[in-house]
Amino acid sequence: PSPIAREVGNAMGGALVARLVQCCLSLLPRDAVAARSSRRVDSALQMEAAQTLHDLINGLPMKDLWQSILPGLFAGMYGTCLSKLRYSPSASSHKIASLCVETLACLLKQALGSDDREKADAENDTESIAASLFAAVNISAKTIEKPSAPQSKLDDVESEVNSRIPGPLSVLLSLMPGIRSKSVRLSGLHLCRIILVDTNFIWTEANKKSLGRKAFEYCLTLLRDDSGEIATCSREILRSFKESLGAMRWRRYLSQIIAPSILELVETLPLLAKSGKSAELRTSLNLVDGYTIASFRDMENDFDFEECLNEKRKSDISAALGCSESLEVIKNAFAVLFTPDIGSIVPKPMIEVDSSSDSTKLALRYEGNMLRFEYLDEKNASAATASVRLIARALGVKRCAFAIDGVYADMFEACVRSAGSRYPTEGSHRERLKWAGLGVVATELLAGVSGPFSSAIGPCTSKSTLKVLSSLASSVFPIIVSEPLWTLPSVSETRHNDPKEDNIGAGSRHGSYNASVVMVLMRFLCLYARVLGTDIKLLFPTILFPLIERASPIGNHSSVQRTAFSTLWTISETAGYSDISSLLAMNVDYLLDIISLRLRKYAWEGSHLERSLMGVVEVILQSVVYQRQVSGNQSSIQG
Length: 639
What we know:
Helix content is 73%, strand content 0%. By secondary structure, the protein is mainly alpha-helical.
C-alpha cells in the first residue's frame, strides 16, 4: 500500500476505517423491511455508499485490516445484495446490487487472497543453499516460536471463513444467473473468479465441492448468455480455472461430476417446462450446454459453443451419454419439452401443384420451421434445440444414428399396438404427443450430427458421416412411410362423401394429434434431404409416393398437405429439379408402378379404392399438365 493508504489504515488501530465502513453500511438495506424503508433514502446516496466501500477496499490493500472487519462487512454487504436482488426489481436496485457483489468480491480477495509473502518465497528460492543453511543455524528456538501466533490467527480466520461464508455465497450465485441485469450477471462472474482462482487454496475440500461447484456452474451457465461480453468473460474465467488445476486434475475433476450432472439436469427439465418456470428452464438448459461444452477436448478455443457445434471435436462423455439408459432419459425428457401445441394446428388454404411462387415457398418453409410447442416460448424452444444438437455432437454420429433408429423403431411398434383401438382416448392423445416430441428429438439429433449448413441447402458433412447417415436412411425411411404410422388419419372419415367436409374433419382433436405426428415425420424427411443432397434420389422409390399421398388435398389435414408440399419443394431443389412438377415428371415411372400395383391389389381383393390414391392421381395429372404448359410456352418463345 501507498504511505497515505497505510496511514489511513493504521489510524486509531484501524478504528477509523471500521467507522467509515459502519457509516456506509448504515445507508444500505440489509433485509426486506429495510429494503422497503430504504425507499426514503435516495438511491444515488446508496450508490455512493456502495462505491465508497468499493474504493476503500481497493485503495487499502491491507490483509490484516480487512480480515478483522470481514465478519461485519460481509454480513452487511450480503444483506444488501439479497434485499436488492429479491425484493427490488428496479434498474437502480440492480445497479446497487451489482456494485455490492463487486465489493464482496474485492473484500474476499483482499482478506483471503494470496499476499506478498508468497512472492517473497518465490524470490527466496534463488538464494544459495549455503546462505539458507547459515540463516537456519542462527535462528534460535525462541525465534522459531514467534510466527506461531500469526499462523494460529490465520488458521482461525480460514476456519471461520469456511464455516460461515460458503452458504451465503452459494445463495447469491443461485440468484444471479436469472437476473435480467447485465451488470449483475457480470459482477457474479467476478465473484466466481475470486472463488475459483484467487482464493481457491483457502477452501476446504468440502467447500470446494459445494461452493466451488456452484461457482463453476455459474460460469458454465453464462457461456450461453445473450451478452457476448458476459459469455467471453465466462470463458476466460473457466480457462484460468482450468490452468490453475492443470490438465490431469481438470480431467479428474470433470470425470466425477459432468455426466451425472447433465442427466440430473435433463430429468428436471419436464417439470420446469410444465410448471411454466421459463427463466429457470432457460438457466437449466444453458447449464446443460455448459457441461456439454466443457466435455469437449482438443479445442482451438476452449469453451467456445460455436466450435463445439460446428467443428469435429471429441467429447469425454460420449460413452456415458450413449448408453441405453442415458439415451432414454435424454429422449424422454426432451420429448416432453417438444410436445407440439395442438391448438396451433388449424385449417389453412390448400396448396396446388402449380403454386410454385417464391412467396408461397417462403411462407411454407416459415411454417415448417416455426413448429410451436405447448410448454416452450420462442427463446426456450431455440435453447432446447441447441441443447439437443450439442448433445448430438458430444455423442458422435454412430451413437446418434443408434438413438434415431431406436426412436422410430419404438414409435412404429407403439403405433402398431395402438392401431387396434377403434375409438381415440385421452391416453392415445398423450401417446401421439409423445411420438411427435420424440420425432422432433430425432430431427434435432440429425441436425446436430450432420454439421452446419453452408448455404440454404447442403451441410458441411464429412464423407464418413454421410456414409453412416445414408445407412441410417435406408433403415428408418421404410419404417417412417409404412402403415400404420404414415397413414394415421388426419381428417374425419365420418362424412367423406363430400370433399368439402374435409376441413370440418380437420378441426377434430384426434385428427390434429395425428397431424402433428405426420408433420414431424415429414420435417425429418425434409432435413434428411438437405443432409444427403443429390444422394436423396436413391431413396425416391421409398419416399416419393408417400409424400405425394400426403400432398393430396383429398383425405389430408391442410397443415399436413402444406408440410408435404414444403418437403417436396426442398427435395426437388436438393435433387436439382426446377420445381415439383418437373420432379414428378422425371420420376413418373416410380409413381406409375406403385399405382398399378395398388390397382391390381384392389382388383384381386375386391376392396374399395382408397381416397388417397385418387388424390395422388390428381397431383400427378396436375403436374404433368403444368409441365406440358411450361414446355409449350418455352417452345413458343424460342420459335
